[in-house]
Amino acid sequence: MYQLTISLQVKFPVQRGKPQSSVPQLKLITSTELKEVLDTDDMKLPVWAIHMCLMEYIPMLQETLRSQVQDACTSINLRRAFMESLSLYFGRPIEADTIFCRKITVVASNGVFTFLVHFSVPIQFPKQQPTLTLQSSQHFDSRGRPILSRPYSDYPWSPRWDQTQMSQRIFDFVTDECITFKKYCSEVLLHHT
User: Fold this and answer.
1) Which of 108, 115, 118 has its CA nearest to residue 140?
2) How many alpha carbons fall within 13 Å on the CB side of residue 50?
3) What secondary structure letter does DSSP report for 72?
4) pLDDT tens-digit readout, 140-180
5) Residue 28 in contact with residue 40, Cβ under 8 Å?
């Protein structure tokens, strides 16, 4: 089971013999699993007013976190709907992260060229588009590893499109790009033989 925890680290400045009234350093500490859905490193924390105590700060922080967690849950649902819409064009996935909906792999082909498409879906989806990587199932480098494309994130994208249109545009991009990728795989083989 996943451990989804958030802790607040508070460092109060202390100088010998002088009372301090300055603002403490605040940092959220999260479990590794929670980082998959909630980016706490860039989260804007509520302002700590001078002379504020921790008991006054915690309710404001809890409200901020509630809102952020709700947004993260909404984002998971959007990613899940996107993943489901991919099956309309690519078929059922061979691998998928069904909990946080961040990764999915599908099989694709163009004629006899068969390859995998790996999707890495960011936490900020759909504001940020997924990164795609193509992997040949027929071409291997001199060490026996499958040949991979560069990560693609420069294909047509709009966060305003519905899930089906996003999937259609990605499918169209992969259909065009797989020809270039197949040539790349053949060139890699020529250089290693």
Assistant:
1) 115
2) 3
3) H
4) 888 889 999 999 999 999 999 999 999 999 999 999 999 99
5) yes
